[in-house]
Specification:
By secondary structure, this protein is an alpha+beta fold. It is built from 10 helices and 12 strands.
């Protein structure tokens, strides 16, 4: 059978007894060899024995008592009581050094706890005042935390809400599917359109989920009003520009017809006026067709196709100047080939017009180039010209804004819309290696 291990204090007591044992044995030997009476020998022996045991017990207490004090201090620190302090002794004393370090640790933990409490109070205040609903769910999809906005959203007080499952409060759909999306639904506390974002975190090693729900109705309504205002302003401007001269000419022609004595060239005036009316009406019709094209762009029909033949095909369509083609990698991405072709045709046409306008005196100096590159997980199609570049990029993608006399102002807007519907982007910038503009159509592969 294995021997039972002695505790620390008993071990110290045994070592103290062992340290004094040789002296006690020597004292007993000398005492019993002396000529003192037997009674005196017994009394002296008892005194030596008591001193031996008392000294060992004192040594034990001298070691054990400081350890008990340290244990009490550490227990207090663990329980969060930082008011207890050890009495510090002299310098260069081991016990004093330990006591000083314990006291410093207590002061540090007290300051850190105070800082955490203040930070937690500030965070709680922010969460209560913020208008965004915040829910925290545990690994079993039960509510761990909900701020005031969350309580108002599901129309439940905090005491009843905590511990409820996501299904019970109607948020089970927020814990599955895409982590970021828009919801259109009715909550017990409010109806509207909502932006939802879900993230994961761990507490004590267990997975939890944080769901943030924000009301988008007001922001969307404000943006819708602004969009309608911009649309009405643009449409009103174009309609007035076309209808005002049409009305004026129609009134003039009507006046001519009502005259009893007409001028000899009245028929020529009538023909010229009707021709102007027809031209303005045709321009207005084209404007409305352009608007319909921009507003009714269908979603892309994604199918694989080779990028090289498509670019070579659209290059042939530009017959005003030769387009330099720098071939890139052989790729067959999944895009809507018709929409990508339309976007590239518009961009090439803009580049050719810019280069030819800048070099109108010598069109042979006008240069347009196109190339494609694979950048990580994107396909970049780059079109460059040696025109005058961009004077300003403020109105590049404003619908119906154009600096061309015959332009509709939807070409670049349509190109960007096609890029964004494919999950990509369109950027235009002035070249740094030469004069001119660089258009980059970046699409995910």
């Amino acid at each position: 059978m294995a021997s039972k291990k002695l505790s620390h204090d008993r071990t110290v007591f045994v070592y103290a007894l062992a340290a004094g044992a040789p002296a006690v044995i020597l004292a007993f030997t000398l005492l019993w060899q002396s000529e003192t009476s037997t009674l005196n020998k017994g009394i002296l022996s008892a005194g030596v024995l008591l001193c031996w045991l008392g000294g060992a017990a004192a040594a034990r207490m001298r070691v054990v008592r400081p350890l008990q004090v340290l244990a009490n201090l550490l227990w207090a620190l663990r329980e969060g009581d930082f008011s207890l302090r050890a009495r510090e002794g002299k310098r260069n004393d081991p016990w004093s050094d330990v006591a000083t370090e314990i006291n410093s640790l207590g002061a540090t933990l007290h300051d850190q706890r105070l800082e955490v409490l203040e930070t937690s109070a500030l965070l709680s205040k922010i969460m209560e005042e913020i208008e965004v609903a915040i829910f925290a769910f545990d690994q079993d999809d039960h509510v761990l935390l909900a701020n005031r906005a969350a309580q108002d959203l599901v129309d439940l007080p905090n005491l009843r809400l905590l511990g409820q499952s996501a299904e019970q409060i109607g948020l089970s759909e927020c814990l599955i599917g895409k982590p970021t999306r828009m919801l259109e639904r009715t909550f017990p506390g409010k109806t509207g359109r909502w932006g939802m974002r879900r993230t994961g975190f761990r507490e004590r090693g267990l997975p939890h989920q944080l769901v943030v729900i924000s009301d988008l109705s007001r922001a969307l309504r404000e943006e819708e009003v602004k969009a309608w205002q911009r649309l009405v302003r643009v449409l009103g401007h174009e309609l007035n520009n076309s209808l005002a001269p049409i009305k004026s000419l129609a009134g003039s022609l009507h006046h001519i017809l009502r005259l009893d004595q007409r001028a000899p060239d009245w028929e020529a005036d009538m023909s010229s006026g009707l021709e102007i009316i027809e031209t303005r009406a045709d321009g207005l019709s084209k404007f409305m067709e352009a608007y319909a094209t921009l507003a009714k762009l269908p979603p892309p029909n994604l199918k694989p196709f080779a990028i090289a033949p498509l670019i070579k095909r659209i290059v042939i369509l530009e017959n005003r100047l030769p387009v330099n083609v720098t071939e890139g990698p052989s790729l067959s991405p999944h895009y809507d080939s018709a929409q990508i072709e339309q976007a590239l045709i518009n961009l090439l046409s803009n580049a050719a017009e810019a280069a030819l306008e800048t070099h109108a005196d010598d069109p042979s100096e006008a240069v347009v180039s196109i190339r494609w590159e694979k950048q990580r997980s994107n396909l970049d199609i780059i079109i460059e010209d040696n025109g005058s570049g961009l004077a300003s990029d403020a109105n590049l993608f404003v619908p119906f804004f154009t600096t061309k006399s015959e332009g509709t102002g939807i070409g670049l807007v349509l190109c960007r819309q096609i890029a964004e519907q494919h999950g990509g982007e369109l950027t235009l910038e002035n070249r740094t290696d030469a004069t001119g503009c660089r258009a980059t159509l970046s699409l995910p592969l």
